[in-house]
Design goal:
Blueprint: E1 4-8, H1 10-21, E2 25-28, H2 35-43, E3 48-51, H3 55-69, E4 73-77, H4 79-85, H5 87-96, E5 100-106, E6 137-140, H6 146-158, E7 164-170, H7 171-175, E8 179-183, H8 197-209, E9 213-217, H9 220-224, H10 227-236, E10 241-243, E11 258-261, E12 272-276, E13 296-301, E14 315-318, H11 321-329, H12 334-337, H13 340-366, H14 375-385, E15 391-395, E16 414-416, H15 426-436, E17 442-447, H16 448-451, H17 457-463, E18 468-474, H18 479-488, H19 490-495, H20 510-515, E19 520-524, H21 527-542, E20 547-552
Parallel strand pairs: 2-3, 2-4, 4-5, 5-7, 6-7, 9-10, 9-12, 10-11, 12-13, 13-14, 15-16, 15-17, 17-18, 18-20, 19-20
Antiparallel strand pairs: 1-8
Length: 572
């Protein structure tokens, strides 16, 4: 690695360090306390600032960039207050393990008083705002330490298990003149060690001899770039595959081996369970206290905290999942695939997979003329119309992402989403994803409720000419909340009245909202107009233009017909 000495302000040392690190973009919402950093962007070329109009968007854009590029994203927000305003999306990044370096200026909260605008209160550290949603945190008071702390931050963010880190630089440090610093890029330690050969052999023999195995795939597969390896393992041994909560990215959903989300599979069907890169999600109740009837449970992953976190494991392997999968596949012999129980399983998976895809297509076709437009028909037409290699940035839960042709090679679609559940991720993440995958068509797929958490992100798409197609599945509802309210039961389910989930009074005009920020679009209410509208969106992407489709879709699920809301006017 090249090492060099530079002289300049603290802010210039910071930008020199970013350039050495290969940082292309600084995702930011500007603030005057960070003036030393922004001034340095003019004197040290190489880093392009990307302006977003709220801190939550800044963080979600960085998250989308990190996931699309598989590089660490760099963020600068404004002091303690800006840090807190971005904390919902920082929580998402922490939950997912997205590598990013989040920075802000910091003001003295004690030497000359303890009541300063936008800063931490006296007796408290700015670190406290992010303590439980970052891997590590640093304060930098001395400008000479800026390169070292920043290098350390990138190393930590990129080290498995990856995740966001936080650095606060005092304004004085950023503005100090004539500072000498040593600049050198950070590299994450290589996580290349494998468990002893006996452990790999034991896992392989367990899989080969299992009558009813299940492979559970999770996010670490994408982080490690282990798509080819997981496909090889599943296909050679005809393994049924489940994925985590709304995780349609770690294994192709249209593959014959795919059997659904892990929450939906029957525990009693499987005697051997091997989890690869699976990050358990209990969501407040013990859905992952499972597989008690399995004879053997194996976990392989990057984060030791996720191995045996909820259900116990018989064997746990902490390491780079790609290397571990390669070692397992290296034990394969052709005779393993010819064993009668493996061949029977392969035939049954093919039969079920073909039947599942056939039924999905038939179900979509049955809704071709529905008005409002059925979500299944939207997914069906989008799959037929939008280009190969589409990157879908999704903030959908109750629509039909699972019908999209997600896969692991370049011609198939890929999925970027957060599993942390804090709304407001989609639009910002689409901005970051387009910057991280500039040669790929990017579609931002989200519900009408989610749009309003981050609608000012349209402005950023327009300013930087990002050719993103935003597809709004507009059902005038917080549909996820409504269905969960109905599951709760009580008077809500009995009366079909779900407080504060109906969004149709007044109805929001998303085309006008986007146009006010420089993006053209179209509202689609008739099923016969949908294919042409999708083609117009695809043409816009090819022409390098952002575009929005506001598609009025049917409300589905429990309580779908309810438009009740508590009417109230301050003055009649």
């Amino acid at each position: 690695m090249k090492r060099k000495r530079v002289f300049g302000t603290g802010g210039e040392l910071l930008v020199h360090q970013l350039v050495a690190q290969g940082v292309k973009y600084a995702f930011t919402n500007t603030g005057s306390a960070e003036a030393g950093f922004f001034n340095a962007l003019l004197t040290v070329p190489g880093v392009q600032p990307i302006l977003l109009l709220a801190e939550s968007l800044v963080l979600s854009a960085a998250d989308g960039y990190a996931k699309a590029s598989r590089e660490a994203a760099f963020v600068n927000v404004h002091l303690a207050a800006g840090t807190r305003q971005g904390s919902g999306q920082l929580q998402n990044a922490y939950f997912d393990g997205s590598p990013m370096v989040v920075t802000a200026a910091m003001r003295d909260a004690g030497s000359f008083g303890d009541h300063n605008t936008l800063g931490s209160s006296g007796g408290f550290s700015q670190m406290g705002a992010v303590e439980d949603i970052t891997k590590k945190r640093w304060e930098v008071w001395d400008a000479r330490g800026i390169p070292t702390a920043t290098r350390r931050a990138f190393k930590e963010a990129l080290t498995f298990p990856t995740g966001p880190v936080y650095v606060a630089y005092t304004s004085q440090a950023l503005e100090t003149n004539d500072v000498e610093g040593v600049i050198q890029a950070a590299e994450a330690p290589h996580m290349g060690l494998l468990p002893e050969a006996g452990v790999i052999r034991s896992i392989w023999d367990t899989l080969v001899n299992a009558e009813k195995p299940l492979l559970v795939c999770g996010q670490d597969i994408g982080v490690a770039g282990a798509g080819e390896e997981i496909l090889t393992l599943a296909e050679r041994l005809a393994l049924p595959v489940a994925t985590g909560f709304f995780d349609y990215a770690s294994f192709p959903v249209q593959h014959p081996s795919y059997v659904g989300q892990v929450e939906s599979v029957s525990e009693e069907e499987y005697d051997v369970v091997v989890c690869v890169g699976y990050r358990q999600n209990t969501r407040g109740y013990p859905v992952d206290l499972r597989f008690a009837r399995a004879g053997t449970i194996v976990g392989i992953g990057h984060d030791p905290g996720m191995l045996g976190n909820t259900f116990p494991l018989d064997t746990a392997v902490w390491g780079d999942v790609r290397h571990t999968l390669r070692a397992l596949n290296g034990l394969w012999k052709e005779a393993d695939s010819k064993q009668p129980h493996v061949q029977r399983r392969a035939a049954e998976l093919r039969r079920r997979g073909e039947q599942r895809l056939r039924e999905q297509a038939q179900e979509a076709a049955r809704h071709a003329a529905d008005r409002p437009i059925h979500p299944n028909w939207v997914a069906h037409l989008a799959t037929r119309t939008l280009p190969e290699g589409t990157v879908v940035v999704s903030e959908n839960f109750r629509n039909t992402d699972h019908l999209f042709p997600f896969g692991l090679d370049k011609s198939q679609w890929s999925l970027i989403r957060t599993y942390g559940g804090s709304l407001g991720h989609g639009i910002g993440a689409a901005v970051g994803a387009q910057l991280g995958a500039p040669d790929s068509p990017v579609v931002c797929s989200l519900g009408d409720g989610a749009v309003m958490y981050s609608a000012s992100g349209f402005w950023t798409m327009a300013r930087y000419g990002l050719p993103i197609l935003t597809l709004v599945w507009n059902n005038l509802n917080y549909q996820t909340v409504r269905t969960n309210f109905d599951t709760f039961g009580g008077e809500m389910a009995k009366q079909q009245k779900y407080p504060e989930v109906y969004l149709g009074d007044p109805e929001i005009d998303f085309v006008m909202l986007a146009k006010s920020q420089g993006i053209e679009g179209r509202k689609v209410t008739e099923p016969g107009e949908l294919e042409a509208a999708l083609r117009r969106g695809a043409d816009a992407m090819r022409a390098g233009e952002p575009y929005l489709l506001d598609v009025r879709v049917a409300t589905v699920g429990a309580g779908a017909d309810s438009t009740w809301h508590q009417r109230f006017k301050l003055r009649n």
